[in-house]
Amino acid sequence: MALNPSAPETRNHPVPNAYHQLYATPETVHWGYFDPAQAPVLTIQSGDLVYAEALTHHAGDDPDLMLDARSWRVFKEIPEEDRNPGVHIMTGPIFIQDAKPGDMLEVRYLSMTPRNHYGSNLAANWGHLYQEFDETERITIYELDPNSNNASAIYAYDVKEKYMTPGRITRCPECDRQTALNGVRVPVRPHLGTAGVAPAVNGRTSTIPPGLHGGNIDNWRIGAGATMYYPVAVEGALFSIGDPHVSQGDGEVSGTAIESSLNVTMQIILRKDFHFPSPLLETPEFWIVHGFDEDMNQAVRNASVDAIKLLTEQLRLSRNDAYSLLSVAGDLGITQVVDSRQGAHLRIPRNIFPKL
């Protein structure tokens, strides 16, 4: 059910005013940043449905398998010097009519479908154990099986040069291919690593660290069937999506997930009746509160403080009761440790509340 959780069980489903298609082209993406001065590429009303393409910047790890004609245009036509200060290809921004600072965006992710049957994992120079692996980057290419909904590694190779240019193209036929993960199958669970609104700051904000605007949260639960709530910071919200994944574990310890492009369908709803200080995830089973900081201890503290805020303001628990509940029923997890600003999350099961 939609927050406010004190509302009746019958959820209000806004009837979409329109259905929009947003293809990823050099004219509709921005590479590596959020910016409140970025001109919107689509304007919608609250409740509209949007189909949008999200491209991975790692498609160049095997361009023959992971780049189609339209994706090639993005890689060829956006200059390398305009891919900064972050690395992710962002589709958008989308302007939501009447969205004002202090509002919330409720984004219902309805479907996420891989655009091809391949994905790449890079053991990157920003990975958690880069030094332990002799400062060598390794790429593993996975094939997705849509029938079993699993992914299997088909080959791997080492790269001498660090991944420094977003969208680097590697010619895999010219590299030393090695077998990898023989017989291992990884469940496919498509999700967005990065999505969010424009922060209220001058100039570009990197897509690499997560923050109160959303950004590179890297929570694999942000997939089809989930709803995200993002605090609006600027007029129109200016919402963008990118960094698509087909599978990832909590922590993302090597630096990346299985990176692969996705087609995303979502309903975007403007909420003026509900406010929350940080990106909030709602799944059929849980509310998940996020915390971010360069120090993991502080990220955990931030997630815990905001979780208490959720329980007291939306579920009307006392602070003492909320604190006790987090300890006995809340699951604290590490979202990621590789995006400069680290991420923690607290999962609160929804079925323990009798009114819900």
From TrEMBL:
Single GO MF descriptor: hydrolase activity, acting on carbon-nitrogen (but not peptide) bonds, in linear amides
Gene3D superfamilies in the cross-refs: Acetamidase/Formamidase-like domains (3.10.28.20)
InterPro entries membership: FmdA_AmdA (IPR004304)
Name of the protein in its database record: Formamidase
